[in-house]
Structure formats: C-alpha cells, structure tokens
Design brief:
With about 350 residues, the protein is of the alpha+beta class. Helix content is about 40%, strand content about 10%. The protein has helices spanning about 5, 65-85, 95-105, 105-120, 125-145, 150-160, 170-175, 180-190, 190-200, 210-215, 235-250, 260-270, 280-290; strands at about 15, 25, 55-60, 295-300, 305-310, 320-325, 335-340, 350. Strands 7-6-5-4-8 form a five-stranded antiparallel sheet, with no helix packed on it. Strand 4 (about 295-300) and strand 5 form a beta hairpin.
Length: about 350
C-alpha cells in the first residue's frame, strides 16, 4: 500500500479558525475511529478522534522538498533541546504537526527524507538526527501496516519525541565511551518516564503518544524496560518505534562506535523476531527496509560478487544483482544482471563491504 492510498480523499485543506486568531489553521479533518483498520492494532489501543480539542498549526507554505522538511524537523528538535532544560514545559506540537501533515499529503517527500537518512552522517548530534530518522522509518512502517491518517499522526509524533527525555540527561553521560555504571544506566533509563511526563498534557488530543514514548524500550518477550511487560500489553506504536529506533542506532555511527552495515543491521533485527519484536512488525519492517538495498555488495553461493541493482518486494532475500567479480575474484565488466528470484541455484551468502570487493 502506498502512503497516497491512505490520504487520498481523507485530508481536506486546512480551515481558518473562527475565534479571531490570526494566521492559524486547524487539523480539522483527521479521520475518526470508523476509518481505522482495526486488524493491525489491538482494540484497546486504537486511538479515537479527539473531541473538542484541535491543535492550531502555523500557516506557512509547505516545504520545497523532502530535504527541506527533514531539516525543519532537525532544527525544531535542536531548538527544543536548547529550551527544554530552561523551561521544563511540555513541547508545543504546532511545528511537528505541520511537518506530519505535509508528509501525509505528499508521500514523495517521505521518500526524499528517507534517502536523506541514508546519506546523513550525524554522530556528532545523534540525539536529534536519530529522532528524525526514527520518525521517517516509523512513517514507512505505519503505511505498510495500513494505519489511517490519525494513527499515522500519533505514531509520527511519538517517534519524533521518543527520546525527548534524553534532552534532560547530562551530555557526558550520553556520550560516555566506556561501560556505564549501574547508577548511570539507571539514570539513562529514566528518559522514558521523563518523556511520558512531558507529553501527558497532550493526552486529550493524542491519547497514545505519551504511552508509546514510555514503552518504546519494552520488548515482545518481556526483556525491556521500564516494566518488562510483554506481547499485547505493549502499545503497538511502541513496537514500531522500538524496531525503527534499534535499526537507526545500528545503521548510524555514534561517538563511541561505528555504524553496522545495513545487511547486518537488518539481519540482527530479523533474528530477534518474536523475541524482541512481533512477527507482524518485523514483516512490515522487512518489506520497507530490505537487507540488500540498491548499491550494496553481496557474495553469492558460487563465490561471485555482485552489486544490488534492485530489491524484490515479494522476497527481500532475492534482489536483482549485477555480477562484478567471478568466483575466482576476477572483475567482470559486462552488464550481466541476475534476478535471484528467478533462480533456485544462486543465493546470497552474505553482504560485504566495499573494501571486500575485488579490485
């Protein structure tokens, strides 16, 4: 399902307020519960349409492109990080809601934002960039899982704010290169509670955002925190954000470690199926984030090396590859393409780095 399928005909143009305020619009056509696809979310957790409260959003023009939208989200979080320790006040949702509305209305922008998450190197400010990346990844999975626009709005808000509590954790503790002491780890883990408390004032309008922020480190088998709850006790939004946050952390560098290749990042998450994340979420994740993205290098079972030229949505383990070196390590310069989905003989053994490609 494409994002355009879930928004077409469902979000109308913003309407002017009638209370005399200037330059404000309302998100006045977010669909109610009757629009939801209840098969993807446990009934007890399905967001309902907020009654009597709508969030004003500034009336600036839409972003010129996905990178501009991405940069606006980054700038918003950077400014929030500066203000929050001084004010301690709950964040205003105006700017994030504006960004999310644009993402829903123009799905092509999300693909541009996604490409930017792959290109951006942000180890020096991972608190902010990882939150924006997690929102983009969560959006893509939410679409794949058939979420309606209001569900997408809650999911994206929770994803953007999932680590807001970390803004109040001392910086040296966050970037510490060595192992954390028990006391330091306990301090880090408080960020979920801090984030929940900061977002609870918005519970009337968006009742599941603070809960998802609080539970995004819980895991399917009960291994997570803060309470070690499991299975259906965990909000589904938190499960989506949890796998996206994990993928983001593995696939991007941090001050204290290097990034893992996409192949290994995805493989590690697939191996946790039913242990850390439910099958439904892992399947949606795999459908959006292939183990072998275009441009990555792979080694086949005949020892030849190929470069991936196109993913296979129906079978993410069987992309189309261009062979660039034979089994003896000799470079091949013709355009020999192989759709691995069409052959039962050839399979990918492993992903490899560019340094491992024969010269």
């Amino acid at each position: 399902m494409r994002a355009s399928d879930i928004v077409r005909g469902k979000i109308s143009a913003p309407e002017k307020t009638t209370d005399g305020s200037q330059d404000k619009v309302l998100l006045s056509d977010i669909p109610g519960q009757s629009d939801f696809r209840t098969h993807t979310t446990p009934p007890a957790f399905i967001p309902e349409r907020p009654l009597g409260r709508q969030t004003p959003v500034d009336n600036r023009p839409f972003a010129a492109g996905g990178q501009s939208l991405y940069n606006r989200a980054v700038q918003y979080l950077q400014e929030l990080r500066e203000r929050l320790p001084l004010s301690g006040e709950p964040p205003s949702l105006d700017q994030p809601l504006r960004i999310i509305v644009e993402m829903l209305a123009e799905p092509a922008l999300v693909e541009e934002m996604y490409q930017h998450t792959l290109a951006a190197e942000h180890s020096c400010d991972f608190e902010v960039f990882s939150a924006v990346n997690t929102m983009v990844y969560s959006f893509k999975i939410g679409v794949r899982m058939g979420y309606a626009p209001f569900q997408m709005t809650e999911l994206c808000l929770a994803a953007l704010y999932h680590d807001i509590g970390m803004f109040l954790v001392p910086k040296p503790l966050i970037t510490k290169p060595g192992e954390l002491t028990h006391a330091e780890w306990a301090e880090i883990k408080k960020h979920t509670e801090t984030g929940r408390d900061l977002l609870q004032p918005h519970d009337v309008a968006y009742p599941h955002v603070s809960r998802a922020v609080y539970e995004h480190h819980e895991r399917e088998g009960g291994q997570g925190y803060p309470h070690g709850i499991a299975g259906e006790m965990i909000c589904e939004y938190a499960k989506v954000i949890g796998i996206c946050d994990s993928y983001e952390a593995m696939s991007h560098s941090r001050p204290y470690r290097d990034a893992t290749t996409q192949y290994l990042s995805v493989l590690k998450l697939v191996e946790t199926k039913d242990l850390f994340f439910p099958t439904s979420v892992v399947k949606a994740f795999l459908n959006e984030f292939t183990m072998y993205p275009a441009g990555s290098y792979v080694r086949l079972n005949n020892k030849s090396v190929g470069i991936v030229v196109g993913p296979n949505r129906n079978n993410p383990f069987k992309p189309t590859v261009r062979i660039i070196a034979d089994g003896q390590g000799i470079r091949i310069f013709d355009e020999k393409l192989i759709d691995l989905a069409d052959t039962a003989i050839l399979n990918i053994v492993t992903g490899i780095s560019a340094e491992e490609v024969p010269k």
